Amino acid sequence: MNLRGSALSPRVGILLIASLALGACEGRAPTHPRSPPRLLAQNYRMTGFASSIEADSTCISCALDFFVQLSPTPRRSPGVLEYDGVHGGHVIRTVLDSVGNGISLIPDVYGEVVARSLPADQIQILIPIPINLTTESRFYRELASFEGTLGSDGTATGTWKCAPFDISEGYVDTM
Fold first, then answer.
1. Of 4, 22, 48, 76, which has fewest CB within 10 angstroms of its CB?
2. H/E element, 112
């Protein structure tokens, strides 16, 4: 699964790339564990795509497309630059059986976001909407947090798990 994005400001931008492949971290330069947090771009975009074919031939695909706008001035505490902001966009999850029958759900999202720049070029993006943290749907819980490592070019690598909506009646989405 890959998440791609680009900075819309001259400061450090964010590009999240997640991969199911074991070699996703190859070629990444090591970072010094004491490097201070870096300033983040005020505007950036996160996009991603993932797909798999299950043993029963069910095809599952997901896409993520968010725009994020952060406050220009972060809160500073020892080892952390923390930005408040907003995000908006959509996520798509499609589940099709072996003959192409199924469901595609495309929720639009908008809400608050918190981005944290941490030492050793680490980054956290949190979407603290209460529904993301308390819902029974794994789909929304997985959209509550992203973590990654900032590269020297201002991009970051990290992970995203496109979980099911946990629908068990009618069209099923539980894998």
1. 22
2. strand 108-118
